[in-house]
Design brief:
- There is one protein chain.
- This protein starts with a strand and ends with a helix.
- Helix 2 packs across helix 3.
- It has one domain: eRF1 domain 2 (Nucleotidyltransferase, domain 5).
- About 30% of the residues lie in helices and about 25% in strands.
- A hairpin with a 7-residue loop joins strand 4 and strand 5.
- With about 150 residues, the protein is an alpha/beta fold.
- The protein has 5 helices and 7 strands, in the order E-E-E-H-E-E-H-E-H-H-E-H.
- The model has no long low-confidence stretch (mean pLDDT about 80).
């Protein structure tokens, strides 16, 4: 049975293959893929410019105004979530896992789940709202509890 474990936040997504040793039947995690969306890293000022989007205010002696107010950080967050979910959908379509364990940062947990394909959501055995991207590989399974141990 093919089992995958996914840990993600906005800046990093790690996909692990969960396998079992033959002799002692203990779980073993193998990193299959790690992605870091380029848009998640860097400063906001590097992504936008102060000249583009300005427009002239009539009757104000050539003064320039900033463009309409936009909630740019929220838009970037939405795009990153969409990008992560798209990558997961493509990866799982190619790999066809039977069971998936997912840990996503609590800020994006529900949004990532909502954007996953329905067939993939049905394969998720346990989903945790926690940021485990920096947890050592050896300690990851402890966060999923007895569900993993029973496999």
């Amino acid at each position: 049975m093919k089992t995958l474990l996914v840990v993600t936040d906005l800046g990093c997504c790690k996909l692990f293959n969960l396998d079992w040793t033959h002799v002692q039947h203990t779980p073993r995690l193998e990193l299959v893929e790690e992605i870091a969306p380029a848009a998640a890293h860097g400063r906001l000022l590097e992504k936008i410019t102060d000249v583009a989007g300005r427009y002239r205010i009539p009757n104000s002696r050539m003064a320039m105004s900033y463009a309409e107010r936009q909630n740019l950080p929220a838009e970037l967050k939405r795009r990153l979530i969409k990008q992560i979910a798209k990558h997961l959908n493509e990866f799982f379509k190619a790999e066809q896992p039977e069971v998936v364990y997912l840990a996503a940062n609590k800020e994006i947990h529900h949004q990532v789940l909502d954007q996953l394909d329905a067939t993939l959501r049905g394969r998720i055995e346990k989903a945790i709202a926690a940021d485990l991207t920096k947890v050592p590989k050896a300690d990851l399974l402890e966060h999923f509890g007895t569900v993993v141990e029973q496999r």
